[in-house]
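Page 37, continued from 36.
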């Protein structure tokens, strides 16, 4: 009996030592499982290419929290499939009447028309190397003192486009902005910095984040803040939701200048958005594209817009009929794969008409069944594109010059 007790105690002590060693190991070198718990690495709707990756149901709220977005969902059930800022239902459509156009053009001191018909825009080639993945990190006040600093850092992922030969990047303000208010844990998340990774000719996928202690994707470059709108202009993303970053020294010759005028589209004119899906994941992600058609000019009621054509946050509303495009989902093209969703990472992504940069995506909504991912309904996908005219006019009003 005494011999049996000795064996039992020996086994117990061995188990305790082993358990303690594992705790220490996971504290110093967090495993993939523990890392997933502190920084979500996939969206709530899995891609067909990642069928083996599962997201625990209990972590959904935490994942939505860690993805830095600022607008509440207008539909709680739809929150699981809406990947970017919600396309708010409180919008108003505006039309380009002849009298308003004449009035606006007569007020232009430079005697230069503020509008251009879509049929007059020359067709241009799209250089995918002008499109970038934007990542900003946010750290709490406990980051420097924490024994597990990875728990005190969050990321926001979006897209952007290089608009000058000096490395100026246009993206959405809500991708890079910090929240001055404390969260429910008392943490205040301050922006540590932003980085941008460029697209190469082969469209090599990019790992948006990396495990603690590992090297970042070498394509990421430090990006300083060149311009941000005021809070009054921004209007919690309902207004002028854009920002300009600057990388340097800039060696990539690929850039796309902004179209300075408000484009008078015909309903049904084709628009293409090219961007990254925005997964906060070590899994490399490639370019995706969204093909839609112009529906109307619109603005959010929460903005300062009043129905006139001033720089206030007017959007081109782009719709995509699922019945028309769903048979092409996941098809590889020269501008990335055709995406089945309105992705979160499309925030800041460039929108093109015949190769002309007409604005960036700020809000969107998928027409998926919100209760069963991947099941399509008759609801169209929506992308709201902040018009380049408003961006250009705001920079001009603030005395900011971006070289071309």
């Amino acid at each position: 009996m005494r011999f049996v007790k000795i064996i039992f105690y020996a086994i117990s002590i061995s188990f305790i030592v082993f358990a303690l060693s594992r705790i220490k190991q996971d504290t110093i070198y967090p495993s993939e499982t523990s890392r997933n718990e502190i920084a979500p690495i996939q969206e709530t709707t899995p891609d067909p290419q990642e069928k083996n990756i599962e997201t625990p149901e209990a972590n959904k709220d935490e994942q939505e929290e860690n993805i830095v977005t600022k607008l509440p969902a207008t539909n709680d059930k739809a929150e699981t499939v809406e990947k970017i800022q919600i396309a708010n239902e409180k919008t108003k459509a505006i039309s380009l009447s002849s009298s308003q156009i004449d009035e606006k053009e007569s007020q232009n001191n430079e005697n230069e028309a503020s509008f251009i018909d879509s049929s007059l825009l020359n067709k241009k080639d799209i250089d995918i190397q002008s499109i970038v993945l934007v990542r900003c990190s946010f750290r709490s006040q406990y980051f420097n003192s924490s024994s597990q600093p990875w728990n005190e850092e969050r990321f926001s992922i979006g897209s952007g486009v290089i608009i000058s030969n000096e490395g100026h990047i246009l993206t959405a303000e809500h991708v890079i902005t910090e929240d001055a208010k404390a969260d429910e844990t008392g943490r205040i998340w301050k922006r540590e910095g932003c980085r941008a990774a460029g697209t190469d000719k082969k469209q090599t996928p990019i790992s948006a984040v990396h495990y603690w202690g590992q090297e970042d994707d070498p394509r990421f470059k430090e990006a300083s803040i060149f311009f941000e709108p005021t809070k009054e202009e921004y209007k919690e993303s309902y207004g002028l939701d854009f920002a300009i970053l600057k990388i340097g020294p800039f060696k990539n010759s690929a850039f796309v200048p902004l179209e300075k005028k408000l484009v008078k589209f015909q309903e049904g004119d084709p628009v293409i958005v090219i961007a990254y899906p925005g997964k906060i994941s070590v899994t490399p992600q490639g370019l995706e594209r969204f093909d839609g058609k112009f529906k109307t000019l619109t603005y959010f009621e929460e903005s300062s817009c009043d129905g006139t054509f001033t720089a206030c946050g007017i959007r081109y509303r782009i719709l995509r009929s699922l019945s028309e495009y769903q048979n092409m989902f996941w098809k590889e093209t020269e501008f990335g794969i055709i995406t089945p969703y309105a992705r979160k990472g499309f925030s800041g992504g460039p929108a093109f008409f015949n190769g002309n940069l007409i604005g960036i995506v700020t809000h969107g909504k998928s027409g998926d069944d919100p209760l069963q991912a991947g099941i399509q309904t008759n609801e169209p996908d929506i992308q709201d594109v902040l018009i380049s005219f408003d961006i250009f006019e705001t920079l001009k009003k603030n005395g900011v010059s971006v070289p071309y």
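The mean pLDDT is 76. Flag for discussion at group meeting. The CA atoms of residues 73 and 403 lie 37 Å apart.
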